[in-house]
Fold this protein.
Amino acid sequence: MATEQKPKSRFGMVIDLDRCNGCGACAAACAVENNVPPAHPTATDRTGLTWMRVYRADNRRPFPDNRSVYFPVSCQHCGNHTPCMAVCPQNAVDINPETGVVSQIPVRCLGCRYCMAACPFHARYFNWFDPKWPHEMENALNPDVSVRMRGVVEKCNFCHSRWQAAVARAAANGNHDIDPADYVPACVEACPEKAMTFGNLDDPKSEVARQSKAPIVFRLLARLNTDPKVYYRSDRDWVRRLGDTDVAQGESEVSRG
Amino acid sequence: MDNSFISRGIRRCSTPKFLAWLAPWAVLLGLGVFAIGLCLIKGLNQTNMDNRFAFGLWIFLDLTVIALGAGAFFTGFLLYILRREELRAVINSAVVIGFICYSGAVLILAVDVGQPLRAWFTFWHPNVHSMLTEVTFCITCYLGILAIEYAPIVLKNRQLRDVPSFLLFEHQLHKVMPLFAAVGTFLSFFHQGSLGGLYGVLQGRPFAFRDGFAIWPSTFFLFILSAIATGPAFVLLTTWMVSKISGKQLVRHSVFALLAQISGWLLIAYVGLKSLDTLVWLNVTAPRSGVSAIRFYGWQPFASWMLVVEIVVLGLLPALIFLSPSRRRSTPWLITASLLACGGVAVNRFVMTIQTLAVPTLRFEPFMLYFPSWQEIAAFVFVIAYGVILYSLSFRYLTLFPQERELQQQ
């Protein structure tokens, strides 16, 4: 287990909630890029697969003061005592020492789902059904990403195949380090509102590092001290409060995305 | 028909009557096999678990039966290590019950994981920091120990004893039994604790996360204590049930009284420490994570009554009954207290497994409920039917209660 090893770089993202309109393009692009199968006919919103889930929340005020916000939530790529990685009995979760990205190894996963119980962000999904694509849609699968079998857990890995491709391109050009512009996850690329900024949080020159230090930026459940690498940004106080831990019933929430 | 297999001097019902008793359990066993087959062939979509309720009925009941099965190792510890000879009257029965509880739990765990054929990966790629790794290692080893402890009971069967090598082997096993009891105790302390640790270490789940000592959260110690407190109560309860069903006195009342006294002292210690732990959690641990823990109990139907029922009604009350000398003389009081104590450990395991997952962590996630599918229920009925059948066969053909013959002659 390499939880405490400091990775060479820390890739993460900042999501501007004031720009997000909840269109779901990020979730769709993620599914296409990562070969997430279409929902089984009997799947529900509790048994489906989506590496990026867009929640809708509101300020619980009556019309005309009612305001809503969309929260795109994927794996938060925790850097401190990574909850899922610490509990996996057979090391099927690892942290890439180059990028700090938390990855799942489906071919080693036992399907015990302890990692799902451990994840405070409900960002891990179990393959309750056999993956199945409509006739001939298999031809559109991304050849760089393995499909996962029934009975294992999966989750966002910041489009690991795109990082591998960027590393290969850099090597082909004789470079040791990748060009940051060459590694962009599908969700970030697809967002029509340009609400997502991605990059190396440890690179002080990067846009994502600059944005992550803004005072109106926050992280989900920061007080659980898991050091997530996904940041959220909003000018609105009530939206920032939604990221906090306290689960007071009936306050500021919500329907599910 | 099968009299030659039944121990001398012991009376058992006729074979047809015995088969009639087994028949309904065999039907339930068959139903369970069908449900388990569905889950293995079609997948866990046959259950009502989901991405939020990653654990369900099976994990809750697994934890409960493993706690109740603690009577096996703890009775062995008291008998072989602390030399409480009075407990020889129930040790064989406790071992059989322990074997049933552990083998049943392991079987259900094999159905509960998405890729059961990969179970060996835990031994090949172990994450030594995971409580589940420790649980897997210890339970597997301890099931082996229980099988070894079961073996001499089987080899003592009237027919098997006639085979000289079996007799010799049984004799040799008896000589090393204290060693196995000691190893079993060591392993059991760790896996009972690690089962509690499974939840106590969940830093991302403020409802379950607990402070502790060194690498162990407080739930590690509380699970051990609650298991060894209720294990003897479960041995008492099952002995009484077998006695009622068979219509025979199997042990002297003094054995019941001793089991109750042991259970009582451990239970009162557990209730004290559990209360202290709850106060620390409410006032220190949860607030440090930014959560006012008492608000967890605002979610219906798991309101604060759960906490009161678990600690007072199903903890303190049976402990006080067990510790009262006059109540200990009364079998109905002992059975009532045993039922309460076993119910208490079940509620505790329910709270740690199901309630932990029901409470949301993200503020825009709702509180959720889950009800198991018929396949989940049938799979667990399989374990109960398997247990009843194995115990019935053991009771009929093996000597589970050494005092029975003597009591029958009186």
